[in-house]
Amino acid sequence: MTMRRLINGTPDQVLEPADRGFMYGDGLFETMLWSNGVIPLWTHHMERLQDGCSRLGLTSPDETQIAQDREQLCQGEPSGVFRLQITAGVGGRGYARPPVPKVTRVAAFTPVPRYPLAYWRDGIAVHRCRMRLSRQPLLAGLKHCNRLEYILARGEWEHPDFVEGLLLDQQGHVAEGVQSNTFAVVGDRLLTPTLVDYGVAGVMRGYVLRLAESVGLRPQTGRFSLGTWLQADEVFMTNSLIGIWPVRRIGDSEIPLGPVSMKLRAALLAAGIGLESILERGVV
């Protein structure tokens, strides 16, 4: 299966070169996992999209239109990735938008990535990124279309042992992964960095925070040192595709695997959420 795409609900269209999403990264996107005829975290994705559009001053597309795109692209497929991008469209001069931007809606469907199941069962090695995230509270939490910091961070490693990268902020606090959020288990606390100055407030991050008490943990957001992560009982990474990847190593530091990530993964599997359940069933 190759990528299938709709632009404003129409196939075989070409994106305008003057689209502000292409020219300036002026927009937002959502990456969603299609599994067994549904997108399990659909409501949370739509809530984040609407919040992001409001914060950026864009008109959020009608959810009915987005659902029609989803059905047109995804129906009949056992699994896949549904990506939705909303841009400020064409118009304005330079950085100045037109008074009322006419948004562009780009929907795409691609096969799921076929990661080894060992990433879930045995944990992953994570690169310690040298690049540090800049502070910008106005964009904090948003999955906006300008991803240059993350592209530069991802360019830091080529070694196949490293599956993800861990990003710090300018003060050396743990921030997030290059394509994920990060959690640490310390005693009965489930720690994750606060995202008021930078980062992406992942849909899976929110889901895991809501699950914390069900596995006997107290969720806590805040600013945490790298040392906290290196000395934690467990560390894991999350996003809406992978679900949860336990971390066995950060840079040269070994991290123990433990029961919390196993319990949380079991909860996701039981709910049919995340790529692990798709790969286990072989429905790709």
Structural class: alpha+beta
Shape: globular
Unreliable stretches covering 5 or more consecutive residues:
none
Write the H/E string, N to C.
Answer: EEHEHHEEHEHEEEEHEHEEEHH
- CA(first)-CA(last) distance: 10 Å
Instruction: Average the pLDDT over all residues and give the rounded result.
Output: 97
Q: Give a quick account of the main beta sheet: strands, pairing sense, barrel closure.
A: 9 strands, mixed
Amount of helix: 25-40%
Percentage beta strand = 25-35%
Count the helices. How many? 9
The beta-strand count equals 14
**If you compute it from the alpha carbons, what radius of gyration comes out, rounded to the nearest whole angstrom?**
19 Å
Function: Involved in the biosynthesis of p-aminobenzoate (PABA), a precursor of tetrahydrofolate. Converts 4-amino-4-deoxychorismate into 4-aminobenzoate (PABA) and pyruvate.
Enzyme class: lyase
Keywords: Folate biosynthesis, Lyase, Pyridoxal phosphate
Catalytic activity: 4-amino-4-deoxychorismate = 4-aminobenzoate + pyruvate + H(+)
